[in-house]
Write a structure and sequence with these properties.
The chain is an alpha+beta fold. It has one domain: Ubiquitin-like (UB roll). The protein is 27% helix and 26% strand. It is built from three helices and five strands. It has helices spanning 9-15, 31-39, 43-49; strands at 2-7, 19-23, 56-59, 62-63, 75-79. Helix 1 (9-15) runs antiparallel to helix 3. The longest helix is centred in the middle third of the chain and has 9 residues, at 31-39. The termini are far apart.
Length: 85
């Protein structure tokens, strides 16, 4: 399944990448599994997207939970929590 990935703020800085189009194996069916698939790349990917990091995720511009199903042609975005003050 082909999807678009988008990375924002500190995630983008850590990866040196704002977006990527990726072909996923059939076993990757949820937003959380996309994250796990990317973490398995190791290195900066594991550091930026690992479970130790508090991240927000969205599918097709809608905030979502890790168990949210993905669809071919969709967009998964990763970004740190927003803070303000």
């Amino acid at each position: 399944m082909l999807i678009e990935l988008r990375f924002f703020a500190s995630v983008r800085e850590a990866l040196g990448l704002a977006q990527e189009r990726i072909e996923l194996p059939d076993t990757v069916r949820t937003v959380g599994q996309v994250r796990e698939h990317l973490v398995a790349r190791g290195g900066a990917w594991a550091e930026a997207l690992g479970q130790q990091r508090a991240l927000r995720m969205a599918f097709n511009h809608v905030m979502c939970a890790p168990e949210t199903p993905i669809q071919a042609g969709g967009e998964v975005a990763f970004f740190p929590p927003v803070t303000g003050g």
